[in-house]
Amino acid sequence: MNTIKTTCPYCGVGCGIEATVEDSAAHRLTIKGDANHPANFGKLCSKGATLGDTVSLENRLLYPQIRGQRVDWDSALNHVAERFTKIIEQHGPEAVAFYVSGQLLTEDYYVANKLMKGFIGTANIDTNSRLCMSSAVVGYKRAFGADTVPCNYEDLEQAELILLVGSNAAWCHPIAFQRIRKAKENNPNLKIVVIDPRATASCDIADLHLPVKPGMDALLFNGILAYLQQNGRINQPYIDMHTEGFELALNEAVKTAGSIAQVAAGCGLSSEAVGTLFDWFASTENTVTVYSQGINQSSSGSDKCNAIINCHLATARIGKPGMGPFSFTGQPNAMGGREVGGLANTLAAHMDLENPEHVDRVGRFWGSDKVADKQGLKAVAMFDAIAAGQIKAVWIMATNPVVSMPDADKVKRALQQCELVVVSDCIANTDTAELAHVLLPATGWSEKDGTVTNLERRISRQRPLFPASGAAKHDWWIISQVGQRMGFKDAFNYQSSAEIFREHAQLSAFENDAEHQVRDFNLSAFTGIDRQGFDALQPVQWPVTTEQTTGTARMFADGRYFTANRKARFIPITPRPPVNAPDADYPFTLNTGRLRDQWHTMTRTGLAAKLNAHRPEPFVEMHPIDADKLGLNAHTLAQVQSRWGNMLARVELNPGQQIGSLFVPMHWTGQISSHGRMGAVVNPVVDPHSGQPESKQTPVKIKAWPAQ
Ligand code: SF4
Question: Which of 1, 174, 108 is nearest to 426 (CA)?
């Protein structure tokens, strides 16, 4: 038996796994946590622990297909390359797009971005991470000059106050949450505050739960900033030396949230609860603010992130043990995608599309004069452009937008009338794969070979446990083959993921010196890495430089940021409510989120009987008072309807749900429950800076189904 160290493919915590292959032919594994991995020290949650139940060939896409007919790889790859080339010749590069995923490994992501942004010449490549963390990226870039997460998991253990804002970490980042729980057991002085409209499982360890009015978090953090100033709790020397823009941000905070009563009224909270939060924040040096989808998935998500960061900059609580603003992102490799420019508004190695020097640098490194120099279409706009016929060919990699995108019925219609839809995936029968003209079988988690980066910037290896199934190929290979067949032979002549990782590291260090610009993202320690070194790679936090080969646990310890003048920026924040407010026709606010035991659209976790037992069918949580008013009971089948679409779900009564607010989980697909697609209901409103959809605030109505 062969035991291999690899990384969990589900959430952004990035737990290390020891997988023992018991029977390769039968795809039989035993799984346990890697006791030496710094993310989890041997622990696994229910999803990670049942990975062995999800690696069978059931539901696998095993052979290339064109319009439902099995074909060989040459035919499939030639077809995709020829069709893309022809459409680009006829309509220009803006007529094609890639929609990729935080499930891809960094090497896959790198090659996809290189092909689209570097050689096709458009930035029309976006990722499902847009739905998860793009507001956090904007927040970091605006404040720090770069997309850089300052903290690590040890900070959670060294904190005296942890705010969980819009984060049900107990279910969505379970092992990180277990570390917080353990820290609380070890340190009775550690206070936990949960700021969330719902009373979630994370409240189990909370000293204070603030059921904030949906969408009003920025008001709360503006209130903290004003309170800090009013009570002499700001760190003026740090503000003067290491930041800029404090006065403007403070003025806006005082104007909008200058008193506890004003904040309490705006947030729908008691003055007492708000006062307690403000007092704890003001008086506790070691404070970590964890924020997640409840902050990011909002039409003002970027502003909410900066309202949080403002409070940490004002108190100099950043770059030191036990403190900092800490975004928890959802996907296993959302961070890796960010490193290689996986978003339509970023370029590889954390460089910018709209910076001519960066475009020139990347162009010289890749040997291409076609590097895109303006932003591409972000996810929602990309599917709108497909619906409008402006994008005529789309290649969707390892994701299921027909289920997960907002206004998902529109996304479905867009793909139904698109000239060319290519889907590469390891799963055969997703709602999206059903609409593909070309299906390309990709290797799955147990076969892939490369790296992922978790939410604390830690790069870990995913290693193959089994040989590829059927005719499946690695994503980087499939993309490279299409690139070569489109005429870019030398640039995509890769033989291994190790070679791609080395090139990615070389680009991160290319002209990264004082003469040019000091950049946050630097892997100069790996610019000469060979296959052996890649195979032996230990989990490590970037930057990993020749001077600091063991990585960087914490950023900004020296108070120097990545802006031109090396100062962090305060951003003045004017709190805004959600764009679409409930009204007489749609009186409830629909909140959406994850369950403890399922992952995304259930294509893999749905295979594990143990996980399905947690919640077997789509449900909608509502407050008993609301249910009573509408004559709905627990277990009533109900239709949840918005102006965009509808879904069916079983009513569950939950007094932890705010009156006037509903909650549905995101996981069910049309394949599993024909009317259970949450995405069909969600409004497609986006944050103007990040393009992240407002997935947690859609006005809806609910009624028994069928009507009684
Ligand atoms: Fe996997 Fe996340 Fe669970 Fe860790 S916490 S085992 S990374 S799903």
Answer: 108
Render pLDDT for 272-324 as a digit per residue (tens, 0 to 9): 999 999 999 999 999 999 999 999 999 999 999 999 999 999 999 999 999 99
Is the CB of residue 267 less than 8 Å from the CB of residue 658? no
Q: Is residue 515's pLDDT more than 60?
A: no
Q: Is 593 exposed, middle or buried (0-12, 13-18, 19+ CB in 10 A)?
A: buried
Among the listed residues 601, 670, 645, the one whose alpha carbon sits nearest the alpha carbon of residue 431: 670
Q: How many other β-carbons are positioned within 10 Å of the β-carbon of residue 74?
A: 11
pLDDT at position 49 is 94
Residue nearest atom 2 of ligand 1, based on CA coordinates: 11
Residues 619 and 664 sit within 8 Å (Cβ to Cβ): yes
Rounded to the nearest angstrom, the distance between the alpha carbon of 326 and the centre of ligand 1 is: 18
Is the CB–ligand 1 distance for residue 13 below 6 Å? yes
- Please enumerate in sequence order all residues whose Cβ is within 8 A of that of 232, keeping only pairs 6 or more positions apart, or say none: none
49 lines ligand 1 (CB under 6 A): no
d(CA 538, CA 561): 27
As a whole number, mean pLDDT of residues 331-347 equals 89
End-to-end CA distance of the chain: 59
Average pLDDT, rounded, for the chain: 94
10 CB within 6 A, ligand 1: yes
How far is residue 57's CA from residue 78's CA, in Å, rounded to a whole number? 27
What is the tens place of the pLDDT at every residue in 134-173?
999 999 999 999 999 999 999 999 999 999 999 999 999 9
Give tens-digit pLDDT for 406-451: 999 999 999 999 999 999 999 998 999 999 999 999 999 999 999 9
User: Atom 4, ligand 1: which residue's CA is nearest?
Assistant: 15
Q: Which atom of ligand 1 is nearest to the CA of 44?
A: 6
Q: Whose CA is nearest to atom 3 of ligand 1?
A: 45
ipTM for this prediction: 1.00
Residue ranges and CATH numbers for the domains of the chain are 2-54 (2.20.25.90), 65-120+350-457+469-541 (3.40.50.740), 148-331 (3.40.228.10), 588-704 (2.40.40.20)
Neighbours of 564 (CB within 10 A): 8
Please tell me the predicted confidence (pLDDT) of residue 674: 60
Question: Which is it for the CA torsion 83, 85, 90, 93, positive or negative?
Answer: positive
**Atom of ligand 1 at shortest distance to CA of 17?**
6
Q: In this structure, are residues 95 and 418 in contact, taking their beta carbons and an 8 Å threshold?
A: no
How far does the centroid of ligand 1 lie from the alpha carbon of residue 44, in Å?
6
Q: Which atom of ligand 1 is nearest to the CA of 40?
A: 4
Q: What percent of the chain has pLDDT over 90?
A: 87
526 secondary structure, DSSP code:
G
